[in-house]
Amino acid sequence: MSLFLKSVGFSALFAAVCCQASVRIEWQADGLPQAVAARPVEVIPSELPPGIRKPLVCRQNTDKLKQAYFVFEGDNGGSDGNAAGYEIEVAPGGVAGAWRALPPPVAKSGGRTYHIIGGSVLPMGHQHLLLTARDSDSGALKVVAYHTVTAGWFELGEVPGAPAGELTLLPDGTDGFLVCVAQEGGLTAYSRARMLRAEKFPLLNYVVVAFYFACLLGAAAVMMIRNRRQTANEYFKGDGKLPWWAVGVSIYAAMFSAISMIAGPGISYLLNWSYFTIVISKLLIVPIIACFYLPFFRRLNVTSAYEYLEARFNLACRVFASAAFAGFMIFRAALVVFLPALAVSAIADVPLDATIIGLMVIAAVYCVAGGIKGIVWGDFYQGLILIVAIAVTVVVLISGTDGGWAGFMSIAKENNKFDTFNFTWDLTMPVFWVMIIGGFVSNLNSYTSDQCVLQRFMTTKDEKSAVRSILFCIVVTFISGPLLYAIGTGLFTYFSSHPERLDVTLAKNDAVFPVFIATGLPPGVGGLLLASIFAATLTTLAANLNATATALTTDFYLRFKREKGSDAQAVSCGKALTMASGAVTLILALFFAHAEIHSMQETFYKFLGVLTSGITGLFLLGMFAPRVGGKAAIIGLTVNYVICFTLAFAPLPWKPHLMLYGVAGLISCLVTAPLASLIWPNRKPVAGLVWGGFKVR
């Protein structure tokens, strides 16, 4: 094992030592525009920092999921080693805080110092600023880049020729810019720059990914042949004979998606470990699941969890909850397929839309082929791939950081990247109280009202096995969780050491991990990691599509079908609804590909709370509030969604952190429904439908 770690570390160090910029500039002197319009000057609603004589001003994204104003000195700024400029956070209606000095323009690689000149600073991609500067040694005119997250400078290339006059950089598409010269009458285009990737994804990586897909499609073919005569009970519930350890890993894999694999490290790269509190909050829900939900739903023995809501309340509660669940699953699946497609597009130069379509087709075929039994076993093996790939990535990132482990710890501590518990009472920030309460409700939503999880509770032979499966899932989560956040921290320390390895055209923050896969991993390891991303995608997609089809088949097709159909008809309907759900997911994923979203992790948790907290409220009321009937439950559900959607989308003067949207909705539901029951008490018998203290058997 130690030899393996040393070999991986050596490979990473070799890649780091020999690394060049991840993009290169291709200069074009022909086909330049005849007339060039000047870029509008950014106005700062504040006084400039002291010592700025010729301000170059722009806005760009920075860490903490914020934007900032950046001001540079355009007249030999930084020539004496002082600050090259300043930044200040953008706030609604103005700025927040004080001006913060930026480090002098000294390249990490080679230690070259630059003298900033020119008439503009150009925001590029999601996190970079481009300026023109002179090399302090050679005097050559260069284009330099500043990374707003790691505060690193690096050189992109030398401006060809010797343009006379002040230079201005103007945007030219998403992957290029124009170098313009100020002359009488305005600006004249001097040269066009196109950003091209400096290296290709190694062939060995494609071989690893191709082998993975060949195995996956082979497994799907075997499942399709073996399971062609599945009964509805086998297709939707696995016939209740699956081992607890396989189900435990399957629950983990179903909850662990590309949102976790890509967006999770992305958020800890930008912020710190504050979101890890959500993982910790899972410990709080284990007793609730093991002691209450598992024995309760095992005793009910339902195919769709929402069958219970009709028996306990009324048909409207069942239909609404099932439809809301299906909507959230499709939304989640769209995020899940978009993120790995973003990774493939960033890594292999494959068009984003084409990647989304390809992944969606493979996932739908895989899901239809095996039913829940095939999905659980697929989850198990792919979950193992995930954990191995995550561990290897952490080792490579730490080895590739300047100074290895010591450098990793030093850079991370200096930038507060390990901060996890913030005990202040600012409810607008991801402080401890917000994350532990919001995480508890989010996990309660996922593990107690999500058909993906509840469906797996039914696949084991007895209640004790089901309890073991959820406990094993939590153990696996606490192994992989810290490693995932360490990846985000490692990305920060790695790119702080090698800022030139970042793609300046990076369009979305969530692509930062894929960029590392493309530029920072040894051949073969990158393929393994890309395969693990596909594993995370397909396990979650299959789980989401199967659970959606199960809910829709049971709660709509079978519920409203006048004549009882055969098992074969139910399975056929489930497969058709799987394909239909996949089609809707595809459309939504294509929308995400062209939308402006800063963090998929935060977007996911916002919609998780908004769309599912009401369902959780219904289950809690049904199990523990026998006085609450159908009318009161509907009133509580309505109030929940009014509050959640108001917090999420209304332009309010003050809002809590998005992790509290679902908390507010759930509390309002649990308060409103019992109050409404004072006027409309429950008239239905509740024997066997409320918690009666039965024990795990």
How is this structure best described in words?
With 697 residues, this protein is an alpha+beta fold. 56% of the residues lie in helices and 13% in strands. It has 20 helices and twelve strands. A four-stranded antiparallel sheet has the order 1-12-11-10, with no helix packed on it. It has a four-stranded antiparallel sheet with strand order 2-3-4-5, with no helix packed on it. Strand 7 and strand 8 form a beta hairpin. The chain is elongated, with a radius of gyration of 27 Å. Mean pLDDT is 78; it is low at 1-19, 77-81 and 693-697.
Structural classification: alpha+beta
Radius of gyration: 27 Å
Mean pLDDT score: 78
SS element count, helices: 20
In short:
The protein has 697 residues and is α+β, with helices and mostly antiparallel strands. The chain has helices spanning 2-17, 203-226, 232-237, 244-255, 258-270, 276-280, 282-300, 307-312, 315-348, 352-400, 404-414, 432-448, 451-457, 463-497, 512-519, 525-560, 567-593, 600-624, 630-649, 661-677, and strands spanning 23-28, 55-61, 67-73, 85-91, 94-101, 114-124, 128-135, 141-147, 152-158, 167-171, 176-183, 186-197.
